[in-house]
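thread: overnight batch results

M.L. [08:02]
morning all. the overnight job finished for the chain we discussed friday. pasting input first so we're all looking at the same thing
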Amino acid sequence: MTAPSRNALVPFVSVDNMMKLVLHIGVERMMAELAAEIEADFLRWPLFDKTPRVASHSEVGVIELMPTSDGETYGFKYVNGHPSNMKKGLQTVTAFGLLADVATGYPLMLSEMTLLTALRTAATSAMAAKWLAPKGARVMAMIGNGAQAEFQALAFKAVCGIEEIRLYDIDPAATVKCARNLAGRGLTVVSCTSAEQAMEGAEIVTTCTADKQYATILTDNMVGSGVHINAVGGDCPGKTELHRDILLRSGIFVEYPPQTRIEGEIQQLEADHPVTELWQVIAGQAAGRTDARQITLFDSVGFAIEDFSALRYVHSRLRTSGLYQNLDMIADPDDPRDLFGMLLRAGAAQAA
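M.L. [08:03]
and the structure it wrote out:
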């Protein structure tokens, strides 16, 4: 059989090659560069197609597709969220994504996105905090010490200058794991036995828990004035982390309101409760933090444009890194009208 044509081949970034790319660039440097890429795309937010993610819910989790396009490049991510997977020794979140050329519809790259989602989620959190957190914040509480925790800690160190991370999880083993992984990375790591202890002295509070239920990780009395809350765990209908009263005291910033009102912390509020879109703050069209005593809340649910930014970042490094494989994914007959003839010729070649 003849070798696949150039048009048939699509670069694929495997988990192994993604890990090599991250380690080659450096975790913190890649996090900072991803944050900059995402911020740049937020500045051109009006150019993008925007739609809430297409979700298929079950009793045990959710499977979602997250598409967007800037008119030149199209991207989508497949992602699941299954909190009970951890008990089976499986990841709670897995993902892969694709970039395509709008002009032809041909794929440009297929990539793992389990690791890349962890990186882009943390980079987005830190990018938002750069605009919303108290000036000079150096201490962050990290409540929920699962798979995302280390990424969040290092992103906030790289982008916001966090120096101390205070850890708490209902599972002490998760805190031990997180503290071990962060050792020697330039952070003061404090392991705590309660959420209240973790929040002592914290100017930024990140919540990142996985249970698919209405939960109250933070109660109103735990949150003093002047803090920035980075709420990561609430990301689908029926799944929250913050008491409603905290929301009523906070300036709330979101990615895409039609999606966040369904999936975020603000699903607890009335449909017309005022929120500010983060891209407007970055573009200078809306105020971010207005005073030192204000509570700011980034109600993060993850939006397709952030995945698009991350995929484009990886795609831009394919040629220089060489960390990809070519997959024979696109049928490319000599005559575009003769797809069946290509099949017949392949059969003849096999029989010869």
